[in-house]
Design a protein that fits this description.
Blueprint (H helix, E strand, L loop, with lengths): L3 H15 L7 E7 L3 H13 L4 E7 L1 H10 L2 H5 L3 H12 L3 E6 L11 H14 L1 H8 L5 E5 L3 H7 L5 H15 L8 H22 L3 E5 L5 E6 L10 E2 L5 E2 L8 E3 L1 E11 L4 E3 L2 E11 L2 E9 L1 H8 L8 E6 L5 H5 L6 H4 L5 E5 L14 H7 L7 E5 L6 E5 L5 E6 L2 E2 L2
Parallel strand pairs: 1-2, 1-3, 3-4
Antiparallel strand pairs: 5-6, 5-17, 6-10, 7-8, 9-14, 10-12, 11-12, 12-13, 14-15, 15-16, 17-18, 18-19
The structure holds zinc ion (2 copies).
Length: 411
């Protein structure tokens, strides 16, 4: 386990910067049984921040896996009303959400992906009101990570058990700007300022398209929706409360037009989907849709993601990140999107964020779709940034501006 003082700082960061818990607010913490000590510290910090009540939604990865292995598809697809009611209660009580992610790589190896797919679709259908609530920034929510032994040992292959966990804790603290001698809350205020300056420059340009090229074979052009909004760093709820959805975050991202992507993109990091690692893959798009793809490992898993639903073969996000970023510089492949996506430029297959278009959070789904918004129950980021990536923006009047050269911002 990490030092108590570091765990406290990290928990306080999740509570005060991540969720920005307000006085008398209900706080829901979602975590697996692997992360007890962090959960307890977060609960304590939330009460110190003035929470009225803190509830913890526990899950256990091994128990979940046993369910997938032994339950029938019909049983897995049966989402009881009390699960829906519980989420509805949290929404109605104005709760904010702190999720601790601690995925176990390879956990679901050997489980029929079709079975997981159908269970996932059934859950997401019943819970779509909840997704809409969160994605529409109706309340504060944040995701932070914590190690588990399987994950730690895969990241640090020469270490075992507690030693590997310790190393991953240290890497997470470093990536999240939590050090022995700083005040992470202050460090994040400065970091959020830098990100918002970047957003402003890109928002002022209002590029019509972005073109990406590198020596690995990426050669792709994305049309952006009109009146797109570049965001990143802190966000604001519809009630005006600031929060940081992801800790860490380094990205500046916006909304591609659903049908405006053409060309090929080559991934530069593995993608962890449904507990499986998709490696060395590429996608070809035509008029926004994936029309061809391949992967050296887990091609079937990639197929499941692409064919998940009507929108999962279209893009919902494009994010720019300098190649010279703390996570990339650490040289650590975290095997976890929350970190790896912040090492590198990425795109997401699936749902777009309404906040990435002007007044988007107050529009209904049909109006959003008319603007080029992609709807899906999936949202999976994959990395394609590289040290030789070039990004060129073209404005409405045809002016070309180099945004990134050799993987870094030049604007
Ligand atoms: Zn992103
Ligand atoms: Zn994303």
């Amino acid at each position: 386990m990490p030092k108590q003082s570091m765990l406290e700082k990290y928990a306080a960061l999740a509570v005060n910067v991540g969720a920005n818990v307000q006085k008398d607010q209900h706080v829901v913490v979602r975590a697996t049984t692997e992360n007890q000590s962090l959960v307890r510290e977060i609960v304590k910090q939330a009460y110190l921040a003035g929470a009225r009540k803190v509830s913890v939604d526990w899950s256990d990865d091994i128990v979940s896996r046993l369910g997938y292995a032994h339950q029938s598809v019909e049983t897995l697809e049966d989402i009881p009303e009390y699960v829906v009611n519980k989420a509805q209660y949290a929404v109605d009580s104005g709760a904010c959400f702190i999720s601790i992610t601690s995925p176990v790589p390879g956990l679901n190896k050997g489980i029929d992906p079709q079975k997981m797919q159908r269970a996932g679709i059934a859950a997401m259908k019943k819970m779509s009101f909840f997704q809409t609530h969160m994605m529409g920034n109706k309340t504060q929510w944040t995701i932070v990570a914590a190690p588990n032994t399987v994950w730690s040992e895969q990241v640090f292959t020469d270490l075992k058990g507690e030693e590997a966990n310790e190393a991953l804790w240290n890497a997470i603290f470093q990536a999240c700007r939590v050090t022995e001698d700083n005040d992470p809350v202050q460090a994040w205020e400065a970091h959020n300022d830098t990100l918002s300056k970047h957003n402003k420059i890109l928002n002022d340009y209002q590029f019509e398209t972005l073109s990406f090229k590198n020596s690995l074979g990426t050669d792709i052009t994305l049309k952006l929706v009109e009146n797109h909004v570049w965001a990143g760093g802190d966000e604001v709820t519809t009630k005006g409360v600031k929060f940081n959805p992801n800790i860490p975050t380094e990205e500046t991202f916006t909304m591609p037009h659903k049908t405006g992507t053409n060309g090929k993109v080559v991934a530069t990091k593995p993608l962890n989907y449904q507990g499986n690692l998709i490696e060395d893959f590429w996608l070809v798009f035509k008029d926004g849709k994936v029309v061809d793809y391949d992967a050296k490992k887990e091609k079937d898993t990639l197929k499941n993601l692409i064919e998940f639903d009507e929108g999962s073969c279209y893009l919902g996000e494009i994010a720019l990140i300098a190649h010279d970023s703390p996570i990339q510089n650490s040289g650590i492949l975290f095997l976890n999107t929350l970190f790896d996506e912040n090492a590198s430029c990425h795109m997401a297959l699936g749902r777009a964020y309404p906040m990435n278009v002007k007044d988007g959070t107050s529009l209904d789904q049909e109006s959003l779709k008319a603007l080029g918004y992609n709807h899906s129950m999936a949202h999976s980021d994959f990395m394609f940034g590289s040290e030789d990536l070039e990004v060129i923006g073209t404005t409405k009047d045809g002016k070309k501006v180099t945004i990134m050269k050799d993987g870094n911002f030049v604007i």
